[in-house]
């Protein structure tokens, strides 16, 4: 039962693809310094040096892979790795087409060749990782790269052995001919890399895949993560490198007036204290020296233009705005007023969502070094590399091709390293410049910096209203979203059309249900708190509001929540299919043990559809525990089924932590939380048992890094309602459950 | 100068007494497997063993260590630890992997003292180790699997 072929174009985040592309091209054409297709220092050192590679390699086959003389295949990944497994996914595509030995595969992040690495889902004119698009942009590209490399390896072996290429087979990294001749990739790598790769290659048929879709395939990088040898940005140590910590403005928008660093300079190990446009940097021989020095700096800030409102004030303003007419309309179907007028019953609810921190385990950092030849190197989590390359080049006053980015793996990101202003990356460059480029410098944020210096999931208020007729049919729906825009006034401003930032309403303006009369309105607020995409972006709040409110509507109609949803879905739709799969696997129609309660939800994000059924237990004293979550996933064809499971398991834990207890609040503009004592992601004792069921599909792969997140909140909230009779409409849950 | 024994090797480091062991290990000795996550013993990413017992190195001051022996992920040895590390790779427990050195330190300590932990035992022993990727489902499974292999 395969649903109709999915269409990327229906995705809200990609819907305005053309406009985003046009916009970006417009920027490039305007001469801001980024040139389309501009090629900087080539990715591999051997190529960068311009000298012919010796037998040891690496031998470059394309911008996507190299092979060493010892047979090691290195996949050059356009997609940044933050734990989501994109490196593994891209390696799987290459290795399968190449018939490589999986144990001889490694992956390295690359940047600086937008023609080769531009994200197809973003229009192709910019390299970037986000929107769960890594497999979407890589699916053809990296399989073709593997197949092309295979073809030239075969050609090289055929010429050396004097046999027709068609008689050569490859298995597990070994080329063989029926005559008994065999050889590894390494033996032919140098020769093969010199042969032009064919423009057109034939890809394997699905039946011939050995690695793609193989549920038993293990990640290539787990062992190094279990023995402490994996290298992150924090682990970079260059000869003579200094470490800096920042003093950021205490309020968003505050400006530096003056500072006194005399005492700081006297701290042992402190090398310098410098001013940058982003704050003061205390530079030390090591992290602890810089931290001690920082404590000794006194600063006077000009807070005139700073955002000084508290989150409570903002929320109250948002609630007020939610009751008024929206300033923009994201969707309008039918005659909403008439629909409500004719309804037998109308229900209303409002929802509150706080600011959320990404709080990745590795606090933000970057390393910058200016070389004697004038080039600049930056090590970091380069989620938007072209942007950072350009910004860095402008700070230093060199052309972008003189900036080489080393794309590091990072300890999480969840969207945090995909920033418009290059925050921590440009800080490293500013500091290097301020100390006269006399040493390489690593800027390392502490947890407090990471939590207080901003970029949050915006706070939102949703006002929802639904009307049902006398038979319980949903005839009118109105949603009003109030909150900050992520993309307005950034390089993605062109994506905001008719006052609608698609990331504010995705998941709200594309409800799968048949509702004849509906309106989705948006009021975008102007607040000085820096915001950003946070794993699953708009669907972090839209799915919660829609899917808990649909539950209320089902109850008002006196119907079963799944049966009611199915009644408004095309029977063969992806939503209906995953709902039915989840219901079957969770035993929806079977009675639960005493003290256990179920809730359901379904949400589409980033081209994938996920249904979840949560089971909660009560302690009889008003407390609830999430015991089990059953997820059914349609993410198209699964390249790494076990990694799809891992992303959904982790997404459930990530989303659950947020709705249960995470919030960033402000008092007079200052962020109240600073560490994990007050900002509380999920811990193991609150992690439910998770079951992930993947729908078999032959459609092209869609997103999986984020789509596991949106359904968990509403599924749990709907179960909590069954358990306690309380509708949860204010996040996090602690606000309702402890009330 | 302070003398420390880390993973069986003696190190002379130029550190003041109030310097956290975490930064001594990372910045002065140069072992990077021990991670910085919070700096206030809230996340467990910096967990190391001190005479075999897990401590948060960000809140352990070098002046207080004396002759106690420090073990980091790089020096982790013994059947329990090696089994845990093997299982972690076999089950693909890590995602970003940043917290996993600390998780493995705590899991090894748990299994050393409690060869057959229940889910509740695991939750109690591991709750100090945050994983923002929320790999908890597999951490639990990994500890059970390691216990099974160690029993065999």
Number of domains of chain B: 2
**Number of DSSP helical runs of chain A:** 22
Number of strands of chain A: 27
Main pleated-sheet profile of chain A:
7 strands, mixed
Describe what this molecule looks like in 3D.
The complex is a heterodimer of chains A (739) and B (152). Chain A is built from 22 helices and 27 strands. With 739 residues, chain A is of the alpha+beta class. Chain A folds into three domains: 194 residues, Aldehyde oxidase/xanthine dehydrogenase, molybdopterin binding domain (Aldehyde Oxidoreductase, domain 4, 2-Layer Sandwich); 152 residues, Aldehyde Oxidoreductase, domain 4 (2-Layer Sandwich); 328 residues, Aldehyde Oxidoreductase, domain 4, CATH 3.30.365. Chain A has a seven-stranded mixed β-sheet, sandwiched between helices. A five-stranded mixed β-sheet of chain A has the order 13-21-20-19-14, sandwiched between helices. A four-stranded mixed β-sheet of chain A has the order 1-2-3-4. In chain A, helix 4 runs parallel beside helix 6. Chain A is globular and about 80 Å long. Chain A starts with 11 loop residues before the first helix and ends with a helix. The N terminus of chain A is likely disordered. With 152 residues, chain B is α+β, with helices and mostly antiparallel strands. Chain B has two domains: 74 residues, Beta-grasp domain (Ubiquitin-like (UB roll)), CATH 3.10.20; 73 residues, Orthogonal Bundle (DNA polymerase, domain 1), CATH 1.10.150. Helices cover 39% and strands 14% of the residues of chain B. Chain B is built from five helices and five strands; from the N terminus they run ββαβββαααα. Chain B has a five-stranded mixed β-sheet, with helices on both faces. In chain B, a hairpin with a 2-residue loop joins strand 3 and strand 4. Chain B is globular and about 45 Å long. The chains are: A alpha+beta (739), B alpha+beta (152). At the A-B interface, helix 8 and helix 20 of A face helix 1, helix 2, helix 3, helix 4 and helix 5 of B.
